[in-house]
């Protein structure tokens, strides 16, 4: 059962003051039409056909493609990073503590809350990580020098610049710290920076090329 809000007082007064009118059938005056809403899909199809005919559709497709290509070719730089002014080295303990019990499907506790876990007890950082700004020629040269070093493998990680351009030039994979998530976790504030494993810790060296 639905209810309706009462009419405002002044509306009732107006209604009461109107003369009483008796309705009668006057017949059909002029053509009549069924009341119908246009089909939404038909409206969309009509709009697309119009856009295609005028070239607007192709223009919008090209604009979208250009935006996507630009975002891939030159992603947004990681905010808050600067070129290294003062060399800095520090260590990171990657140990983390479980904040809740981890159970299997039967509810049996596999890992109890409060358990300390160091990923380096189970896996090793096989390659050094080299964070650098691809817009800085000195940093690019430094990163390439590290990659060619006989000390071992390294993984290039850009914080600014054009990763696809470097991949084509170096003919190898180049990664990008999208959104700066890795830099923040590792506490990196200056680049270039080299991350390596030191026992059960990670070592971060912010260097000047």
Please characterize this protein's 3D structure:
With 209 residues, the protein is of the alpha/beta class. It folds into 2 domains: 42-73; 82-206, Glutaredoxin (3-Layer(aba) Sandwich), CATH 3.40.30. 32% of the residues lie in helices and 22% in strands. A hairpin with a 5-residue loop joins strand 4 and strand 5. Residues 1-23 have low confidence and may be disordered.
CATH topology of the largest domain: Glutaredoxin
Helices and strands, in order, run as HHHEEEEEEEHEHEHEEE
Q: Give the class-level CATH name of the largest domain.
A: Alpha Beta
Query: In which order are the strands of the major sheet placed?
Result: 2-12-11-7-8-9
What's the short version?
With 209 residues, this protein is of the alpha/beta class. It is built from six helices and twelve strands.
Q: Which helices and strands, and how do they pair?
A:
Blueprint: H1 9-17, H2 40-54, H3 56-73, E1 82-83, E2 88-92, E3 96-97, E4 102-103, E5 109-111, E6 116-117, E7 128-133, H4 137-147, E8 154-160, H5 163-170, E9 175-176, H6 181-186, E10 190-191, E11 193-198, E12 201-206
Parallel strand pairs: 1-10, 7-8, 8-9
Antiparallel strand pairs: 2-12, 3-6, 4-5, 7-11, 11-12
InterPro entries: TraW
Keywords: Signal
Protein name: Type-F conjugative transfer system protein TraW
């Amino acid at each position: 059962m639905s209810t309706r809000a009462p009419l405002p007082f002044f509306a009732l007064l107006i209604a009461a003051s109107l003369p009483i009118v008796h309705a009668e059938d006057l017949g059909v005056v002029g053509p009549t039409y069924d009341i119908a809403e246009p089909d939404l899909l038909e409206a969309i199809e009509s709009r697309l056909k119009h856009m295609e005919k005028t070239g607007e559709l192709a223009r919008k497709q090209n604009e979208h493609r250009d935006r996507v290509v630009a975002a891939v070719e030159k992603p947004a730089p990681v905010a808050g990073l600067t070129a290294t002014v003062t060399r800095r080295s520090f260590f990171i303990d990657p140990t983390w503590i479980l904040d809740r019990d981890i159970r299997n499907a039967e509810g049996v506790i596999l890992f109890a809350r409060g358990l300390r876990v160091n990923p380096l007890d189970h896996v090793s950082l096989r390659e050094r990580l080299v964070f650098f700004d691809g817009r800085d020629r000195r940093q690019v040269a430094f990163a390439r020098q590290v990659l060619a070093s006989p000390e071992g493998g390294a993984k290039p990680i850009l914080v600014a610049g054009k990763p696809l351009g470097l991949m084509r030039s170096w003919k190898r994979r180049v990664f990008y710290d999208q959104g700066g998530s890795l830099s923040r976790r590792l506490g990196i504030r200056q680049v270039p920076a080299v991350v390596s494993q030191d026992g059960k810790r990670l070592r971060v060296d912010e260097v000047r090329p």
